[in-house]
């Protein structure tokens, strides 16, 4: 267990919101260890809100997007997985495994830079078994065109053809798209600029997406290039996001009827 997996011992496993609280504590721990920026806590809360109205599960459309994402990464010449503080705090082990299975290097890229943050993220990834981590050595970095924020500094991403960007900011997604990169986003908000700009949008919680991607990667690695291309060709991102929005609408409609019964039952 890494230091970042510390959980609040006062939350019993039987608590109805145990999973959600467990990850909240990882984010809080991450903030104390410098891994997560203060604004990362707010971003997490926004994500939780969308997760709630998705029923807190990986939907069939998220699974489709995950299949297309894995196929795109396996077909890529120079894929990169971009890592920020929240992702490193939530799923360090999974991220490292995914990077190894897909042969896609990890690159740290932060919106909020603070002394010691990059080192803290590097440490957490090293503890999770990473061997090479990019985005640390400033002398190897170049500026991404069209971006003013700290996130313009990139290393391998500058030359990458496919970039996986979990919990990304819309400005950088837009900049990556303008440079003709294939962008794969993991974002619980299907209406964020990132979700709408990306080529493949996985509307799911990163804590569920990463293990699912690992599972699918192990399956898709057995396929040939033609079969992988077919998976990609069949995928329609716009339709997939629209279907996800329909699921949210249906979920809320269902809950409108059921919600009060559930609360009363618990009492
Ligand atoms: P955008 O800049 O793309 O319009 P935003 O400004 O609304 O989005 P940001 O703070 O830039 O939001 O990005 C964080 C995004 O990450 C949010 O859309 C939030 O819903 C999403 N998010 C937060 N936690 C998770 C998580 N655990 N898994 C997946 N997505 C998450
Ligand atoms: Mg943003």
Structure commentary:
With 267 residues, this protein is of the alpha/beta class. The protein is 54% helix and 10% strand. The protein has 11 helices and 8 strands. It has helices at 18-32, 38-52, 60-75, 85-90, 92-102, 117-127, 170-178, 193-197, 206-220, 225-234, 237-266, and strands at 79-83, 106-108, 133-134, 142-143, 153-154, 162-166, 182-186, 200-202. Helix 3 crosses helix 11 (237-266). The longest helix is centred in the C-terminal third of the chain and has 30 residues, at 237-266. It is globular and about 60 Å long. The two termini are 36 Å apart. The structure holds adenosine-5'-triphosphate and magnesium ion. Magnesium ion is lined by residues 169-170.
| Spatial sequence of strands, sheet with the most strands | 3-2-1-6-7-8
For the record, give the distance between the C-alpha atoms at the N and C termini, rounded to a whole number: 36 Å
Which band does the percent of strand residues land in? 5-15%
DSSP helix fraction:
40-55%
- Low-pLDDT segments, ≥5 res: 1-6
Class derived from helix and strand content: alpha/beta
How many strand units?
A: 8
**Which compounds are bound in this model?**
adenosine-5'-triphosphate, magnesium ion
**Mean pLDDT over the residues:** 92
What composes the largest sheet? 6 strands, parallel
Helix count, per DSSP?
11
Secondary-structure element order, as H and E?
HHHEHHEHEEEEHEHEHHH
Shape: globular
Roughly how many Å is the radius of gyration? 18 Å
